[in-house]
Amino acid sequence: MNSNKALFLFDIDGTLISPGITARRLFVEIVTELTGKKIPLEVQHVAGFTDPLILKDMLQRAGIEGIELNDAIDKFFPIYYERLEERYKAAADKKIYDEVGNLLKELSEEKNIYLGLVTGNMKRSAMIKLTPFGLERFFPVGAFASDDPDRDKLPPIAVGRAEKDWNVEFQNENVFVVGDTIHDIRCALVNNYRAVGIARRDGDKEKSMLKSAGADWVFDTLPSSAEFKTIANLN
Ligand SMILES: [Mg+2]
């Protein structure tokens, strides 16, 4: 149906950009300051998880529980935002994936395609990560871990905001979550939206993981805008 309007909700880390190690280092640094314990944080602790859940897991691994846990979470984020803002700007290991700039520009010019974010970052850290690449302008709406620490709750929040802001209605089958982990796929499927998996690392292994998680499409990198139109059934 050519009257369809499609909403693509993009994950950030590993999908649009590779943020480098700055954020992960900061989690370790600040948790060490708050708890006196150095808790390691590997990729498997973070990929696909939301920031508040990553933090909670680290604090629990440091033996922090109960009221102290909430207290530490409240203290963490203001320090995190301030240091991330400063250090991320200067970080040489962050990068935007090659195809992203042109793709978003082309998609944003499509009349029936709308763009948003669904990310495990807090809103403020999402903007800190996107701004150096000028990507924030493509995403007037989104849902963030600061809205809810449970990623599965985020896509409907983003859809609600998109419908309100643009005064359009999206059918479930025209809402697509685009992301690089099984958590992105799951948060689409549990809400009856559709999932586009991007397997940038580990090639076949990651592709089959995303497929087993139920991804409707899986690509090595973000596909062309023409491919996005095909996915959205707009050709
Ligand atoms: Mg990701």
Uncertain spans: none
CATH class of the largest domain: Alpha Beta
Largest sheet: 6 strands, parallel
Radius of gyration: 18 Å
Strand order of the largest sheet: 5-4-1-6-7-8
Please identify the structural class as seen in this structure.
alpha/beta
Which descriptors apply to this entry?
single chain; 235 residues; alpha/beta; Rossmann fold; 2 domains; 6-stranded parallel sheet; two-stranded antiparallel ribbon; 10 helices; 8 strands; binds magnesium ion
Give a description of the structure.
With 235 residues, the chain is α/β, with parallel strands linked by helices. It has 2 domains: 6-19 and 94-231, Rossmann fold; 22-90. It contains 10 helices and 8 strands. It has helices at 22-35, 43-46, 51-61, 66-90, 100-108, 123-130, 154-166, 182-189, 203-212, 225-231, and strands at 6-10, 17-18, 95-96, 113-118, 141-143, 175-179, 194-198, 217-219. The protein has a 6-stranded parallel sheet with strand order 5-4-1-6-7-8, with helices on both faces. Strands 2-3 form a two-stranded antiparallel sheet. Strand 4, helix 6 and strand 5 (141-143) form a beta-alpha-beta unit. Helix 1 (22-35) runs antiparallel to helix 4 (66-90) and helix 4 (66-90) runs parallel beside helix 6. The protein is globular and about 55 Å long. Bound molecules: magnesium ion (MG). Residues 11, 13-15, 48, 179-181 line the site of magnesium ion. Magnesium ion binds at residues 11, 13-15, 48, 179-181.
